[in-house]
Design brief:
Elements: H1 2-11, E1 15-23, E2 40-47, E3 61-63, H2 80-90, E4 96-99, H3 106-113, E5 117-122, H4 125-137, E6 145-146
Parallel strand pairs: 1-3, 4-5, 5-6
Antiparallel strand pairs: 1-2
Helix pairs in contact: 2-3
């Protein structure tokens, strides 16, 4: 399945440059007797054309504790501080961050905190409401639009 995803990225005109690892510090659940304990997620960094980092060259591993299960508002929720670190590493203030699968709004919050603009999409109306509430609690004057 990963090969199909990578092919789709390249078919869209992007060049895959790096694979990034999010080390969640604490492992998750799963088959407790038949699988390794999952402690990471993978991300793909791809560009159209050449992009040069404005600051230091980012490393491929981000180590940030995952959102604790009892604090999750969305099953795939990412910690805001993880997204802040990534946004700082790959963009500059004033740029626009696009999040096609907004979920709980963590990327929008991180973008705003880091001085970036954002565009976010989410299909599930329940998560749109959750994201808008979280964004409002961070004193952001924008809101998400449901597609």
């Amino acid at each position: 399945m990963q090969d199909e995803f990578l092919s789709a990225i390249e078919d869209a005109g992007f060049t895959v440059k790096s694979q990034i690892v999010w080390d969640k510090v604490i492992h998750g659940m799963g088959d407790l007797k038949g699988e390794f304990a999952p402690q990471h997620e993978l991300m793909i960094y791809a560009t159209k054309g050449r992009y040069e980092f404005q600051g230091n060259r980012p490393k491929t591993i981000y180590r940030t504790q995952r959102v604790k299960p009892d604090a999750l508002v969305q099953p795939n929720e990412k910690p805001v501080n993880l997204l802040q670190a990534i946004i700082r590493d790959i963009s500059i203030k004033g740029e626009v961050i696009l999040d096609l699968f907004s979920g709980s709004g963590s990327t929008s919050i991180a973008a705003n905190v880091e001085g970036r603009k954002y565009i976010a999409f989410e299909l599930d109306e329940n998560y749109v409401n959750i994201a808008n509430k979280r964004i409002k609690n961070y004193s952001i004057e924008s809101s998400l639009f449901m597609v």
